[in-house]
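retry 2 of 3: previous attempt timed out while embedding 5'-O-[(L-methionyl)-sulphamoyl]adenosine. Reduced batch size to 1 and resubmitted. Inputs unchanged:
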Amino acid sequence: MPETSAKSFFITTPIYYVTAAPHIGSAYTTTAADVLARWHRHRGERVFFLTGTDEHGQKVLRTAEKNGKSPQEFVDGLVESEWKPAWDLLDIRYDRFIRTTDDDHVRQVQEFWQRVYDNGYVYEGEYSGKYCVDCEEFKSDDDLDAEGNCLIHERPAETITEKNWFFKLSEFADRLLELYESVPDFIAPQASRNEILNYVRSGLHDLSISRSSFDWGIKVPWDNSQVLYVWIDALLNYTSAAKIFDDPEAFAQIWPATHLMSRDILRFHSVIWPAMLMAAGEQPPRRVYVHGYLLVGGKKMAKSNATAIHPREIVDTFGADAYRYYFMKAIPFGSDASFSWEHLHAVYTDELANNLGNLASRVAAMIGKYFDGKLPAPGALTNEDGAIADQLQKAAQKADVAISRLQIHEAITATHDFVTAVNGYVTEQQPWKVAKDDSPLATERLATILYVCAESLRAVSVLHSSVMPTAAARLWESLGAPESLGSLEDQPISSAADWGLLPASSTVTKGAVLFPRIEADVEVGA
Ligand code: MSP
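retry 2 succeeded.
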């Protein structure tokens, strides 16, 4: 296994705008980050998983006004009633939920920009141009259609003329290109990397970093008449949460971060963000990884175009484990995909109810019936038994390598394929037939077959626990593993495939069905 216990893993999601409730698009990034964080915790690494909310700026301010609330009151309400509960519902175990209105963030943002200012990278000028409030982004002509609409939101960009502070972004093009060159996976996948290389090679403009026409933001430390541009406040959530100024030693242990997002905000993260850090004399992030869009009707599902599906609509029927499994396995991490209830139902039925769930209940039932629920000691292993142990080794290794490459779907597929192999083994070995013969030889064979199955399921619990924490823990308990091996969360990935860890005599129980069948014609989400 490539990782050592001394390693750190800092994984982030974007901090989401609190203009509405979360939807399955924001949940997609957050679930992926959670799966990666859990996996790295199973490797014994020092993990910091950060998510949160982006609360300043014109977009939030206008939405609050439309709702007749002050911005602070509006964001406080949504964070507590919608965002945190959604992540609880999906079993998201973050280490910090940062809000850009948090005091420690505000203080450290001001300290950061004061430093960049002192380093000579900020000057005063006038900005006159286009701005899309939905993107919270200054737009060039290339970003707009012939009518002046933002290409992403299909709404008119607004003309702004303001006295602003500017960041000398244009000075960083060469250093950014050097960074992309020296860390080839800094931006991935390849298409995203190429897009940014071309963009930066064509030259960078300085960036307006303050706004003077409204005051919902963090004050510019050297000019109280302006607030910092929402993006250069938001990006700093990553270093604020890691305590860049509040605890530099802790920061040094966890920085740099892996940032997940979709391509809508790639430029901010791969161009502006590392340049800001360079200007402050800090190390850039470790990598910026772009996953695909969840589409509805061929378009990116978004809060602003009424196509948003709330995760609750799915979890209410399928549960959080199946939700996580579906989005993380059925959609290659990096590709766009359309969500469909039919596909979700098919994956749930085939892979969870029929494949994994059925195997778990059959094995527990047979150990109950033939060995009074006590896991029998195996006899000598045949080639077929050994082949299962070998396949497990390969699956675990494949999954671990896939996680290092952020290919979450490949990691889950490796474990799923192993479950399929164990099901095939049961079908071939026909333990129910072996059980009909009560000779000592046949009884020993039956014991071996059922041990192979239970031991395989023990490993599957560990390998699946990052994606389906609750179901995997139930499986772990049904195998009687906690008594001898301790809690599932403490199981190292590096030994997940070691054969023979589950001791004979473990108490195996047939608990409630892991993935109950769901009728195909249930009008889910209606
Ligand atoms: N507030 C900024 C981010 C600041 S980070 C310093 C923002 N917020 S957002 O609410 O618009 O979130 C955008 C992110 O949400 C995307 O980059 C992606 O991670 C996730 N997604 C939102 N809609 C999505 C889809 N339809 N599909 C996949 N991911 C989506 O931008």
